[in-house]
Design a protein that fits this description.
By secondary structure, this protein is an all-alpha fold. It has three helices and no strands. This is GlsB/YeaQ/YmgE family stress response membrane protein.
Length: about 90
């Protein structure tokens, strides 16, 4: 069941990251989900390193880390994907 949650979280985080990155990102949905999953895992690690992974309420800082890392990955991967498709 955690695999399913990872896919759902990756989809949400990936789509939010695509909204943060300016311009058009012509990458497929499956790649958005994978980059979102990687961003979620790396964001959790970064939040743990800063000691803000688990807080009393909603973990806003952890989510910002997750979306930020996914946005950076999307910004880096999109030009490579566009060159590959051209």
């Amino acid at each position: 069941m955690s695999f399913l949650w990872a896919i759902i979280a990756g989809l949400i985080i990936g789509l939010l990251a695509k909204l943060v990155v300016p311009g058009r990102q012509p990458i497929p949905l499956w790649l958005t989900v994978i980059l979102g999953i990687i961003g979620a895992v790396a964001g959790n690690g970064l939040a743990s390193a800063f000691g803000v992974r688990d807080t009393g309420g909603i973990d806003w800082i952890r989510h910002i880390f997750q979306i930020g890392i996914a946005a950076v990955l999307i910004a880096l991967i999109t030009p490579m994907w566009a060159r590959r498709r051209a």
